[in-house]
Write a structure and sequence with these properties.
Order of helices and strands: EHEEEEHEEHHEHEEHEEHEEEH
Distance between the termini: 11 Å
Structural class: alpha/beta
Strand content: 15-25%
Strand order of the largest sheet: 3-4-2-1-5-6-7
CATH topology of the largest domain: Dihydrodipicolinate Reductase, domain 2
Length: about 325
C-alpha cells in the first residue's frame, strides 16, 4: 500500500492536506505525520475518528515512504526534501526549490505534463495566489498567448499562519474592549484589525516578497515573455483570498467564450450576476474546494483584454488541493 508522509502537520496547510487525504479514504495507517524537532506525545486529528502520532522529522526514515509532501517552511524543505527524494516523490509547498531549473513548478490541471519531468523526484508548487489567478484562465492560456497580467490580491491573515490569525483576533477583541494595542503588533507592523495593510512579506526592492513571487512564479509557469504586475495587501479576514485580475492577450479574446470555458471547468464556479449581491465574497468560500469567479467583463482599456474577480479558501484551494492533485497524478503513475 502507498505510504504518504506529510511534513508540517502543525501548520494550517499541513492540516488541510491531511483533511484531503482522509476525505479521499486514505487509511490513517498509511500516513506519516511529521514535524521538525517534535517531542513525543503530540497528535493531530485525521478525519472524524482518527488521530495520528506526530513523528520527529529529524529522525524519520523516508525509505518506506512513496510520497512526501512538505507543507512547512522553506528552511525545512531545503534541509530535508533532498534527503526524502532519494526514496520518495516529493511535493514541496514552500517555494524552496523555485530557482532550481530541474525542479518543475506545477499547478494540477494546468501543466500536469511537467510532473514526469521531475528528474530529481521533487515537484514545486506555486504560491496560493498564483494558483488562484491562473486556474480560471487555464483554457485561455492554452488557446491564446498571454501578453500581460495585472493583479491586485487581498489576502487574509492566514497567510502568516496561526500567529497572524491570532493577532487579528486579539486586536479585534481589544478594540471592542477599549484596550490598548501597544503590545499586540508582533506579526504585522501596522494594526490589522479594521485596517488594510499594503505589504505581504518583506520588501525586495520596490516589491514585497509576495508580489515578487507572483511575478516570478507566473513567468516560470507561462514563460518569461509574459509581463506581470502584482499588488498585494492584507485584509482583516481570517481565511481566504480575493483578487481582481486583468488579462491582456496577444490575439482577440471574447469574454463570453472565456465565461463558458470557466463554467466548463470542475475547478471553477462562476457566479456572476450584475445585481446587488450577485457576486461571491470571502466569507462565502471558507471550507470550499473551488475557485469562485465573479465580475467577469471586457477590459476596454487594452485591445485584447478582460478582467475578473476571484475568491477562494487560500489554505484549501491554493495549496492543499493543488498538492493533493499532484499527488493523485503521481499515484496514477505507479
Amino acid at each position: 500500500m502507498t505510504k504518504i508522509a506529510v511534513v508540517g502537520v502543525m501548520e494550517s496547510v499541513g492540516r488541510e492536506i491531511l483533511s484531503f487525504l482522509a476525505e479521499d479514504g486514505v487509511k490513517a495507517a498509511d500516513v506519516f505525520a511529521l514535524e521538525p524537532k517534535c517531542p513525543l506525545g503530540n497528535q493531530v486529528s485525521y478525519g472524524e475518528d482518527d488521530e495520528l502520532d506526530v513523528l520527529n522529522l529529524d529522525d524519520f526514515d523516508f525509505s518506506n515512504t512513496d510520497i512526501a509532501v512538505f507543507a512547512g517552511t522553506s528552511e525545512t524543505s531545503a534541509r530535508f526534501a533532498v534527503k526524502a527524494a532519494k526514496h520518495a516523490k516529493v511535493i514541496d509547498c514552500s517555494g524552496a526549490f523555485f530557482g532550481e531549473p530541474d525542479v518543475p513548478m506545477v499547478i494540477a490541471g494546468l501543466n500536469d505534463d511537467l510532473i514526469t519531468e521531475a528528474k530529481r523526484n521533487i515537484i514545486s508548487l506555486p504560491s496560493a495566489m498564483v494558483t488562484q489567478m491562473l486556474l480560471p484562465i487555464e483554457k485561455v492560456i492554452r488557446n491564446n498567448k498571454i501578453r500581460r497580467i495585472v493583479v491586485s490580491a487581498y489576502i487574509s491573515a492566514s497567510v502568516y499562519g496561526k500567529e497572524g490569525m491570532d493577532e487579528l483576533f486579539n486586536q479585534t477583541r481589544k478594540i471592542f474592549m477599549n484596550e490598548t494595542l501597544v503590545d499586540d503588533q508582533q506579526v504585522f507592523r501596522k494594526q490589522i484589525a479594521f485596517n488594510v495593510i499594503p505589504q505581504v512579506g518583506e520588501f525586495i526592492g520596490e516589491e514585497t516578497r509576495y508580489e515578487w513571487a507572483m511575478n516570478a512564479e507566473t513567468k516560470k509557469i507561462l514563460g518569461g515573455e509574459v509581463k506581470v504586475h502584482a499588488n498585494c495587501a492584507i485584509v482583516p479576514a481570517f481565511i481566504g483570498a480575493a483578487q481582481f485580475v486583468n488579462v491582456e492577450c496577444e490575439e482577440e479574446v471574447d469574454v463570453d467564450k472565456v465565461r463558458e470555458d470557466m463554467k466548463s471547468s470542475k475547478e471553477i464556479v462562476v457566479f456572476d450576476k450584475n445585481v446587488e449581491g450577485g457576486y461571491v465574497s470571502l466569507t462565502d468560500v471558507q471550507g470550499e474546494d473551488e475557485i469562485y469567479v465573479s465580475r467577469l467583463r471586457q477590459d476596454a482599456s487594452v485591445e485584447n483584454g478582460f478582467s475578473f474577480w476571484s475568491v477562494a479558501d487560500n489554505l484549501r484551494v491554493g495549496i492543499a488541493k493543488n498538492a493533493f492533485g499532484v499527488m493523485k497524478h503521481l499515484l496514477a503513475e505507479k
